[in-house]
Design brief:
alpha/beta, three-stranded parallel beta sheet, three-stranded antiparallel beta sheet
């Protein structure tokens, strides 16, 4: 159904050195790319998120441009949104929209214990700044940057 969202994430960081002889640094990345390709081509999801935030930028930039074009073709003319999260842009001209997001401030509170010492800190929200770095053929004349605040809704059980 359109409301489904799926996330493809590499749970263990790749080696920082791309030429490590003992371990193939591409094996997990290749698995994630193949799984994402299958998910995009099978359809049925409103959004597919691929998080490469733990992948060193050098490795992310080495993913062939043909991969990003294949992913883009898979979601063209469908209701599916493919969102790629990286530390640096790597999909080049395949990306319809490139955003740069920067955390400006974290808001939180810290509970005091019965003896007056600092207790557990709770994240209450983030202040973010987002800037449009590049957009392709978007008809709207939206702003090039914005900022907003997030707020956590913690249930008190």
């Amino acid at each position: 159904s359109r409301g489904k969202t799926i996330t493809s994430r590499i749970h263990t960081p790749l080696p920082r050195h791309p030429l490590n002889k003992r371990e193939n640094p591409w094996s997990r990345l290749e698995q994630a790319l193949k799984a994402t390709d299958l998910i995009l081509h099978n359809g049925g999801f409103g959004a597919v998120l691929m998080d490469l935030g733990d992948v060193p930028p050098l490795n992310a930039r080495r993913i062939p441009l043909a991969t990003w074009f294949r992913f883009r073709r898979a979601v063209d003319n469908t209701p599916t949104v493919f969102l790629l999260l990286t530390r640096e842009p790597c999909a080049q001209t395949c990306a319809s929209l490139v955003l740069r997001s920067q955390r400006c401030r974290e808001r939180g509170s810290q509970a005091a214990t019965s003896n007056g010492a600092s207790g557990v800190a709770t994240l209450e929200g983030l202040d973010l700044e987002v800037e449009v770095m590049r957009r392709q053929a978007l008809r709207s004349h939206a702003a090039n940057s914005t900022s907003w605040q997030t707020r956590m809704n913690w249930d008190e059980a």
